[in-house]
Design brief:
Number of domains: 2
Largest sheet: 7 strands, mixed
Shape: globular
CATH superfamily of the largest domain: Ribonuclease Z/Hydroxyacylglutathione hydrolase-like
Order of helices and strands: EEEEHEHHEHHHEEEEEHEHEHHEEHH
Structural class: alpha/beta
CATH topology of the largest domain: Metallo-beta-lactamase, Chain A
Strand order of the largest sheet: 1-2-3-4-5-6-7
């Protein structure tokens, strides 16, 4: 059975399969109060829909009792089946307004999506043969985002009632500009989506039409998480975990090391794809290369804003080279996103 009780009496995890890495997504089904509610939807595939039906039937629930579907962000493994769940139940789908804008941009007009993404890849040095692979992968995934839901926008900072408890809607950009987490102060519980993941690093990528400096946004939103008393995190991939401040500290170190590496790889000058290939250094699927490429661009954008690198267009492509600040100073750069090291070491909240 794809559903398991993770926190008594009424928080269940519905683990749905994915045809790429990571191989699953955790959606959550919460009972209690009036009706039941869902956090994230999974892909719109026959397997996902079958697992949802098994979960609802196994828990003795009725579709018409589904009161709300909260989607943490627009990525297909979270948003894809939201429209299907809505058709089954008539329940409203909720996202941040920024998340709704991203969903409309990504899934509202596929011709425009493909054209913009192809031009974006070409500008950053992706060879034609690989662009074709990227487009084929994007088209394959687009078929797993159907039907489109009618989304109601909610504001970060507001509160929602789920399972008889109040949850604060946290705006946590970085992995996606419109990413949200749900935090219950009473239970000291965080539904983290892809913002905090226990076994893998959250992919922080720069995509066409998205945030100009997603890594900076991510580091700032991580800092805000360190101020919250959190005892348990329910992530979208992997198993529940505690002590998020310790995890955040490792993330800061990880990104510092990656920034140092990207700085070296960009000297004496290279386009984003060349740096990406040096950065990855191993055989990857087309899907994995897309995400490493987006991650590389996010690091380059961060370093360019810090003036460690600068960019210029040459022969129809963008190249990066050393900027005004010729020496890498990791503490100064990381502090663009806030004094994260200090926040973690002080151990604000209960997780130090």
């Amino acid at each position: 059975m794809p559903v398991e009780l993770v926190i008594p009496p009424g928080i269940f995890r519905v683990r749905l399969p994915l045809p790429f890495t990571p191989d699953h997504v955790n959606c959550y089904l919460l009972t209690g109060g009036q009706g039941w509610k869902v956090i994230d939807a999974g892909l719109s595939t026959s397997d996902s829909c079958r697992y949802w039906k098994q979960a609802v039937r196994g828990l003795g629930l009725e579709w018409q009792e589904l009161r709300a579907i909260y989607v943490t962000h627009y990525h297909p493994d979270h948003y894809g089946a939201a429209g299907w769940l809505q058709r089954q139940s008539g329940a409203p789908v909720y996202m941040l307004s920024e998340g709704l804008e991203e969903a409309n941009r990504a899934w509202g007009n596929y011709e425009e999506l493909f054209a913009n993404y192809g031009a974006f890849c070409y500008l950053h040095g992706i060879p034609d043969r690989l662009i074709d692979r990227f487009m084929a992968n994007l088209e394959r995934i687009a078929y797993m985002v159907y039907p489109q839901p009618l989304v109601t926008a909610i504001d970060g900072g507001g509160e929602v009632k789920i399972g008889g408890l109040s949850y604060r809607v946290l705006r946590t950009p970085g992995h996606a500009g419109g990413h949200l987490c749900l935090y219950c102060e009473q239970a000291r519980l965080l539904f983290s989506g892809d913002h905090l993941l226990p076994a893998i690093n959250s992919n922080i990528g720069l995509w066409p039409g998205g945030e100009s400096n997603p890594l900076d946004s991510y580091l700032r939103s991580l800092r805000e998480i360190t101020a919250l008393p959190i005892e348990q995190v329910l992530p979208a991939h992997g198993n529940p975990f505690g002590h998020p401040n310790r995890w955040i500290e490792t993330q800061v170190k990880h990104h510092r090391e990656r920034l140092r590496l990207i700085t070296r790889l960009a000297d004496p000058g290279a386009n984003a794809y060349q740096i990406c290939r040096r950065f990855s250094g191993r055989n990857l699927t087309g899907h994995e290369i897309q995400f490493v490429f987006a991650e590389t661009l996010a690091y380059l954008a961060y370093l360019e804003q810090a003036q460690v690198l600068e960019s210029a267009r040459e022969k129809g492509a963008i190249f990066f080279r050393p900027g005004k600040k010729r020496y890498y100073r990791p503490n100064a750069i990381i502090k663009m996103g806030g004094d994260l090291d200090e926040s973690c070491q002080k151990g604000r909240g209960v997780n130090a």
